[in-house]
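User: Please check token order:
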Amino acid sequence: MKRLRTIFATLLLAIASFVAQAQRTNQAYWTYIDTYKGMAIEQMQKYRIPASITLAQGLLESAAGRSTLATEANNHFGIKCGSSWTGPYVLRNDDAPNERFRKYKSARESFEDHSRFLQGRRYQGLFQLKLTDYKGWAHELKAAGYATNPVYAESLIRIIEMYSLMQFDDARYSNATKATLRLPKSNFFDKHTVLRNNKNYFIIVEIGDNMATISRETGVSLRKLYKYNDLTRDYVPTQGDIIYLQKKQKHASREYRRYPIHIVEHNQSMFDIAQLYGIRLKYLYKLNKIDADYVPQVGDILRIR
């Protein structure tokens, strides 16, 4: 019995460790997507590379723009110098010590170079695939040797599906979304992109936003905005907050069916977790059979579906 308990504990720790590494639904990822989806779509239109693939690679390679390469060298795709690169570079330990990685003046330059990099002979098989075949692109990138990580393709696919990045592979997504939601024409949407998570549309709060403005510009009543987002009337939105424009779901999306848990991170509340996964707060409590006065602690494991 003791041995069984030990095995179970080890298995649980392994699963928790895997999820901690694979846990992608967080504010930094949504912010990155909101910031760079336009560049990814531009590259798709110019070079015929799915925007979903560009975004997923950027998220994975740059840790959502937080890696040292991204912050110090604007390198969002982990591209090394190679024999043809004559520009500036930085040294980083990777497969070997002090390898040379390309350094760019801006993120836009990095996105452009990534697209040109994929025009090389070794990646020509990619362009035989349809733009909508993100799974095929992910596996072909791995087969062509873009990364040494044995689960690179699976990681890209998981990110694309977790964040519904395939929506950007149709450059008409913005207009289609507005039509589906019957959103009014407004300059508000020049600064705010309507994104999708767990079948629901949402925006990310920018500086200067308040609930009354969001309600007026989106056409969603103030009462519904508070209700959809489990908010009290004294809530004041801050930059980076997620505001859903539709009623959230009872559990996380099906992409989490294999590992339907969340490991609580520092300073995360039940509300934060509910917003990240697009779950109604009362159902998050119900899924975990806990009371509303429960305060999550770092490392706690919560069910999300």
User: Anything to note?
Assistant: The chain has three domains: 22-169, 173-244, 254-303. The longest strand covers residues 200-204.
